[in-house]
Amino acid sequence: MNAQGRMALKLCVVAVAAFGFGFALVPLYDMMCRITGYGSSAALSQSSAAPSGEVDESRVVTVEFLAELPTVGAWEFRPVVGSIEVQPGRLYSTEFIAKNLTGRATTGQAVPNVAPSKASAFLHKTECFCFTPQSFAADEEKRMPVRFFVDPALPKYVDRITLSYTFYDTQVTS
């Protein structure tokens, strides 16, 4: 085998390894979540029991909703409302809308983020489309619910929480 053939073989091995690493990221992330207890759907659903009935009616917190898409994939993704004012301890619902524009059936997965990071321990989702992958037919649009409450123990200086989601096509073939 000449030098060009060896170089082509090495490049193919690197490409296959990079592709395999991309597929390994999801199970690695799940394993990290199980070990640390952060971000896993099981931990989120367990820690998100319905509010205890204690509502802080003297306080209002603004919860903003953001939707982001990575540069790859063909989707529309947006919150139905940009923000709502909530009272800690009360259960609220909102929805996000996603539309598959890929021209084929596919699956999407939302990854949540809460800011400020100190507030993430006090924002509890009891139902969320981010807990499981979402299957879409070609050109299908879905309204996906989020039910949540803010723990009354949220520090008093936090009066605004941002809940953002990045929506990924799990079957992207670049």
Which SSEs are present, and which pair or pack?
Elements: H1 3-36, H2 41-47, E1 61-68, E2 75-79, E3 83-86, E4 92-100, E5 106-115, E6 123-128, E7 134-136, E8 141-150, E9 160-169
Parallel strand pairs: 1-9
Antiparallel strand pairs: 1-3, 2-4, 4-8, 5-7, 5-9, 6-8
Keywords for this entry:
174 residues; alpha+beta; 4-stranded antiparallel β-sheet; 2 helices; 37% strand
Rg from C-alpha positions? 20 Å
Structural class category: alpha+beta
Total helices: the number is 2
Helix content: 10-25%
Q: Approximately how much beta-strand content do the residues carry?
A: 35-45%
Instruction: Please state how the strands of the largest beta sheet are arranged side by side.
Output: 3-1-9-5-7
Distance between the termini: 30 Å
The averaged pLDDT comes out at 83
Task: Explain what you see.
The chain has helices spanning 3-36, 41-47, and strands spanning 61-68, 75-79, 83-86, 92-100, 106-115, 123-128, 134-136, 141-150, 160-169. It has 174 residues and is of the alpha+beta class. It has a five-stranded mixed beta sheet with strand order 3-1-9-5-7, with no helix packed on it. Strands 2-4-8-6 form a four-stranded antiparallel beta sheet. The two termini are 30 Å apart.
Brief synopsis:
By secondary structure, the protein is α+β, with helices and mostly antiparallel strands. It has helices at 3-36, 41-47, and strands spanning 61-68, 75-79, 83-86, 92-100, 106-115, 123-128, 134-136, 141-150, 160-169. The strands form 2 sheets. A 5-stranded mixed sheet has the order 3-1-9-5-7, with no helix packed on it.
